[in-house]
Amino acid sequence: MTPSQNIYERILKLPLFSGMSKNELTQVVTETKFEFVSVVAKKTLIREGDACTHIYFLLDGTLHMTTTPDDRRFAVTETVTAPEILQPEYSFGMTQRFNSTFVAATDCRMLRIRKNDITTLIEHFDVFRINLINMLAMQSQRQRHHLWRATLTDARRKVVRFFETHCYRPAGEKLLTIRMQQIADDIGETRRDVSNELNRLQDEGLITLSRGQIHIPALERLLM
């Protein structure tokens, strides 16, 4: 397999290009400016608040995505692995700026496409347009589902739901930089109850506690 064929195979695995034929992809590559960007480990690729002038696709490597609330009370860092697309929903709508900071955890290779070219792809390629609509619809449905879930009374389930609702994706490795009192305030439990539940989760091997941080190796295990 030649280097160009290898790139084509990787692109076809990306969320918005999934289902395209190689002939369609050849047409896309001919008509669209693809920018390939290499990012070395520990370098910041995107900062929270940066304008979404491009859509970024992670082809190789691992990124750390850090998100904070408006009042900066805590931070959630999630591990993003290839192949992945970085927050395409912020390229459109009322707020067209990234709401997270992305830092390379390893050396990464990115594909970057200007937003003007994305609109052309949406107009001319049915598969691309349907993939994007499905992705945005799924995110909207998930958020609406969160709003209508039953109110919890069990402290453990409240803690787990706090983790889930503050993560971009409900799976994978997470690192929360937060005080126990902050979790307690947000879920309406005492700090002692939160501490007890977190220590039980640690005893079960589901999380690791350290000063001011909670490491979750695999969030999906907490949600089972």
Question: Any key phrases for this structure?
Answer:
Arc Repressor Mutant, subunit A; 224 residues; 2 domains; elongated; 7-stranded antiparallel sheet; alpha+beta; 4-stranded antiparallel sheet; Jelly Rolls
Description:
The protein has 2 domains: 3-61 and 83-145, Jelly Rolls (Sandwich), CATH 2.60.120; 155-222, Arc Repressor Mutant, subunit A, CATH 1.10.10. It is 39% helix and 23% strand. The protein has 8 helices and 11 strands. Strands 2-7-4-5-9-11-10 form a 7-stranded antiparallel beta sheet, covered by helices on one side. A 4-stranded antiparallel beta sheet has the order 1-8-3-6. The radius of gyration is 20 Å and the shape is elongated. The protein starts with a helix and ends with a helix.
Coarse morphology = elongated
The counted number of beta strands is 11
The CATH superfamily title of the largest domain: Jelly Rolls
Ends distance: 40 Å
Order of helices and strands: HHEEEEEEEEHHHEHHEEH
Strand coverage percent? 15-25%
Rg for CA atoms: 20 Å
Number of helices: 8
Low-confidence stretches: none
CATH fold name of the largest domain, please? Jelly Rolls
Helix-strand category: alpha+beta
Let me know the average pLDDT.
92
- Strand order in the largest sheet: 2-7-4-5-9-11-10
The figure for the number of domains is 2
Largest sheet: 7 strands, antiparallel
State the CATH architecture of the largest domain: Sandwich
Report the top-level CATH class of the largest domain.
Mainly Beta
Helicity, in percent?
25-40%
